[in-house]
C-alpha cells in the first residue's frame, strides 16, 4: 500500500494497492480492481483486521473527512478499506481479535 501525506498535519492518504506483482491506483481507477481476486481479498482482510484505527464520527460524514483514532498510517489504511470494501467495523465484529494484549 502506498501512502501519501502531510507530516505537519499528521494526515496520510492511502492511494495504491500492490498485489500479484502489480500496482493498482485505487483512488483514480478503483473500477479496474478485481474484487474477486484472491490476493486482493487477502490484502483487504489483513488491512481491515490488523489495523487498530477506527472511526469516531458518524458515517454521514464523507470517508476522507471522518475523524479516526489511531496513527496517521493506520487511519489512512482504515479509510481506503472503507472506501473500497465498506462496512469495516461490521467485518471486524465478525472476526474479533482474541488473546490480544495491550490493545
In brief, what are we looking at here?
It is built from three helices and five strands.
Give the helices and strands, then pairings.
Elements: E1 2-6, E2 11-19, E3 22-25, H1 38-50, E4 54-55, E5 68-69, H2 72-84, H3 88-94
Describe this structure in words.
Its main location: membrane. The protein is built from three helices and five strands; from the N terminus they run βββαββαα. The strands form two sheets. It has a three-stranded antiparallel beta sheet, covered by helices on one side. It has a two-stranded antiparallel sheet with strand order 4-5. The radius of gyration is 14 Å and the shape is globular. The mean pLDDT is 85. Strand 1 (2-6) and strand 2 (11-19) form a beta hairpin. The protein is an alpha+beta fold and 103 residues long.
Helicity level, as a percent range? Answer: 25-40%
Terminal Cα span: 23 Å
Regions with pLDDT < 50 over 5+ consecutive residues?
A: none
Summarize the helix and strand pattern as letters. EEEHEEHH
Give the tally of β-strands: 5
CATH architectural grouping: 3-Layer(aba) Sandwich
Sum up the structure in keywords.
single chain; 103 residues; alpha+beta; Calcium-transporting ATPase, cytoplasmic domain N; two-stranded antiparallel ribbon; 32% helix; ATPase_P-typ_cyto_dom_N
Amino acid at each position: 500500500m502506498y501512502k501519501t501525506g502531510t507530516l505537519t498535519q499528521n494526515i496520510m492518504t492511502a492511494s495504491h494497492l500492490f498485489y500479484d506483482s502489480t500496482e493498482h491506483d485505487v483512488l483514480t481507477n478503483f473500477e479496474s480492481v478485481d474484487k474477486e481476486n484472491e490476493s486482493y481479498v487477502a490484502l483487504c482482510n489483513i488491512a481491515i483486521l490488523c489495523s487498530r484505527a477506527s472511526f469516531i464520527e458518524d458515517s454521514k460524514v464523507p470517508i476522507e473527512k471522518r475523524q479516526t483514532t489511531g496513527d496517521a498510517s493506520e487511519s489512512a489504511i482504515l479509510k481506503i478499506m472503507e472506501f473500497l470494501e465498506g462496512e469495516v467495523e461490521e467485518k471486524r465484529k465478525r472476526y474479533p481479535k482474541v488473546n490480544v494484549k495491550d490493545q
